[in-house]
Amino acid sequence: MEQKNDGAIRIGIVGYGNLGRGVEAAIARNPDMTITGIYTRRDPSQVKTLGTDVQVHRMESLAVHKDRIDVLILCGGSKEDLPRQSPELAARFNLVDSFDTHARIPEHFAAVDAAAQAGKTTALISAGWDPGMFSLNRVMGEALLPDGATYTFWGKGLSQGHSDAIRRVPGVAGGVQYTIPLPEAVEKVRSGNRPELSTREKHRRECFVVPEAGSDPETIRQAIVNMPHYFDEYDTTVHFISAEDLARDHSAMPHGGFVIRSGNTTVGNKQVIEYSLRLDSNPEFTSSVLVAYARAVHRMHQMGQVGCKTVFDVAPGLLSPKSASELRAELL
């Protein structure tokens, strides 16, 4: 099916933190898209956007703005925001989210799918670089090298989801978390020898936390290192610092990582596939992925494909602003 641009895709942004600002910046570089509004729980008059002509509304305005939005991009956190917002909004809107708690993706999918099927909308969850781009490369690696093993490493970099989880711990005024791959594990994998590595043997986690006045640091530390799905399976170090230290030393958001598939096509012939990312800004890159998948969601909805989707369900050509014939001529 030829892809056509029948007018700009109208995007609504839900939430305006680092990810929301990244989405606004990404849409400015995609001429087939336009922002029809930013929706926030804050006072709209206190929200300063990158563009001077972008309208900011209270979340409650979504109910009356349905007809002016083709796709919502949800920019909340995975710990508390998206499990509630995505199913609620999928009942009325096409949407994309970046839900990244891997262990809970099946239940999140089920909740969003039920809402989207009932509302006949198209909702894509867990877009970003992991889950997202890394997920696609894990599938490709396994399909191309069925006799093999897949390894994913993250970092060194600041994790938005894990940092958000830290900041929600009682007694925490601010904080960030860095994921750090262990060099000896990476080298074992790149050798093609398929080592068996536990979660703890592949990465460590390092947290920098600003405690609230009067809070107990040890209670905070225990809440972090024992947090299920986030820290309990890793060697985790918690450093307590001042707000000034946090602002001075931890305001940048670099990240990255790599997916490696190591396998054999015949006995003695090792094959290693590696996909890697080196990101100066984790939220800006994640936002760029969300915007591309918003384009795909709009097209899939026009094709009558409703319900919850993941990156596995999207043909690569649907992500591009180019037509199918342009893609064949220029990139195939």
Write the layout of secondary structure elements.
Layout (H helix, E strand, L loop, with lengths): L8 E6 L3 H10 L5 E8 L15 E3 L12 E4 L6 H10 L4 E2 L8 H15 L2 E3 L8 H12 L3 E7 L2 E2 L1 H8 L4 E10 L1 H8 L8 H4 E9 L5 H9 L9 E6 L2 H7 L5 E12 L2 E11 L2 H21 L4 E3 L14 H7 L2
Parallel strand pairs: 1-2, 1-4, 2-3, 4-5, 5-6, 6-14, 10-11
Antiparallel strand pairs: 7-12, 8-9, 9-10, 12-13
Helix pairs in contact: 1-10, 2-3
Please explain how this structure is put together:
The protein has 332 residues and is an alpha/beta fold. It is 33% helix and 26% strand. Residues 1-5 have low confidence and may be disordered. The chain is built from eleven helices and 14 strands. It has helices at residues 18-27, 81-90, 105-119, 133-144, 160-167, 183-190, 199-202, 217-225, 243-249, 282-302, 324-330, and strands at 9-14, 33-40, 56-58, 71-74, 95-96, 122-124, 148-154, 157-158, 172-181, 203-211, 235-240, 255-266, 269-279, 307-309.
Instruction: Give the averaged pLDDT, no decimals.
Output: 95
Radius of gyration over alpha carbons? 21 Å
Uncertain segments are 1-5
> In total, how many beta strands?
14
Note the main sheet. 7 strands, parallel
* Estimated structural class: alpha/beta
* Approximate strand percentage: 25-35%
Major sheet strand order: 3-2-1-4-5-6-14
Tell me the span between the first and last alpha carbons: 16 Å
Question: What are the secondary-structure elements, in order, as H or E?
Answer: EHEEEHEHEHEEHEHHEHEHEEHEH
Helix content: 25-40%
